[in-house]
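Re: the request from the purification team.
They wanted to know what the chain is likely to look like in 3D before they choose a buffer screen. I agreed to run a prediction and write the result into the notebook, where they can find it.
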Amino acid sequence: MHPPDIELIRFANASAEARRGMPEIASHLATCAACREWVAGLEGWLEAAADSMAAGMPDAAASLSRHLHREGAVAARIIPLIPMTIEAPTYSAYLAADGEPDRLPEGSLEHRATLYAEDPELVLRIMRNPDTREESLHLISGDPGLSRNVLVHVVEPSLDFVTDAHGIARLGAEQLDDPASLQWQVRLPEATFTLSPLGTPGTAAEPERETEITAEGGNRIGVALERQAGGVLLRLRLIELGAREELDRVRLVISQGETVRRIVEAPVSEPCTVTGLSLSAPIDIRIFAI
């Protein structure tokens, strides 16, 4: 169990004498390379900030570091799903899935296929709107982290769909002839990062400056932030994604609550830019290997 980020930040800010009063944090850092590297990076930011302030130059990266958090470690996994045989209803049913009822698709839905995994427990239902013929995926789990903003993958033909904050992905023009016969997987992110709220709309702009963040498993990203009058410009650069040296491309899902979501596919070697984000809500960053 890793200490909360706020405790690590306090440790990084503390004097040598104050650190002697934090034996549990010191003991953890002695055995956890990921947290030790993260604290060392924060110490570097704070030292640079002190130098900048002494020279009369505010440091945007030091400000940004206070908002960076790593989500609890979840091993990146590929979860295979197997078909579930159920008797088809003789009527159209309203789907009850992971989310608020008024956020679900309107109208009746036809059931096309149901798949599941036992460990962890997941259910995937493929449904069709009989009026528009549009199909949708509904991923259901008692753990929101397994159903919201995750990748649902079909092995052959190779298809990827990203669920929303309710565990739903709409297939658009994609038509599946026999979904129960396909090989389905749920893919969890390789790494997850969160930026806590950065301020309020209208906050003065800050110069763009990259900050390096380390997460569990040696995952590292560079985050550059620019506050703008209308929101936030965020630039992301992948530095290291675990031991995946052969990886060429990744998919990044940037979300803020239920209303804002950006899905970006980018080469590992190139930074990507996301605009139109809000200062007043957390920014979640999920990185998927593709």
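For the purification team: The CA atoms of residues 29 and 36 lie 5 Å apart.
Please add any questions underneath this entry.
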